[in-house]
Amino acid sequence: MISPKQARVKRSFDILLALFLLPFLMLPIVILIIIASIDTKASGWFLQERIGQYGKPFKIFKIRSLKSGVHRLGNMDVYASSFGSFLRTYKLDELPQLFNVLKGDMSFVGPRPDLPGFADVLEGEDRIILEIKPGITGPATLKYRDEELILAKQLDPDTYNRSIIWSDKVEINKKYIKNYSFYLDLIYLLKSIKN
What we know:
Blueprint (H helix, E strand, L loop, with lengths): L3 H37 L4 E7 L5 E7 L2 E5 L5 E5 L1 H8 L7 H7 L3 E3 L25 E3 L1 H5 L3 H6 L4 H22 L3 H13 L1
């Protein structure tokens, strides 16, 4: 388990790294938000509810990558445009989460924050993954970097996600927390940059 001292070191590192990156990433973030606004014809910056530390909801910052279209029969469909797909492929839609790190909602490394209905309904020992701040990257994120492609190949993506991917992520994140070390955080960050 992560100790109080390790948690303080982790948080200090998050703040220092976020402050270091902010001057370099601020302009690209603004440019991507403007392009996303033009591309989706909606605000390029949006908030989405996710489950954070101790199961508390928070608003995650993202760049909009999906837009709405109308089929011939008049029903609405939500899909990623070419630019949206580019953002999602290279995880650029997640750049604004730098501000979530500065706010203290997130860490650079940890379990990815999920939508309500996943981490917040865990029971027993599995709830250990709620003891730390969710992360921008982490071991489960790296393993399932191509999660959207995996799910797209399934006949029932929702069931596959809940029964296979989600349960595996929980086990990976439990192992990460039980064997936490700052050194491993650095390794996961480096692997995320390389990938």
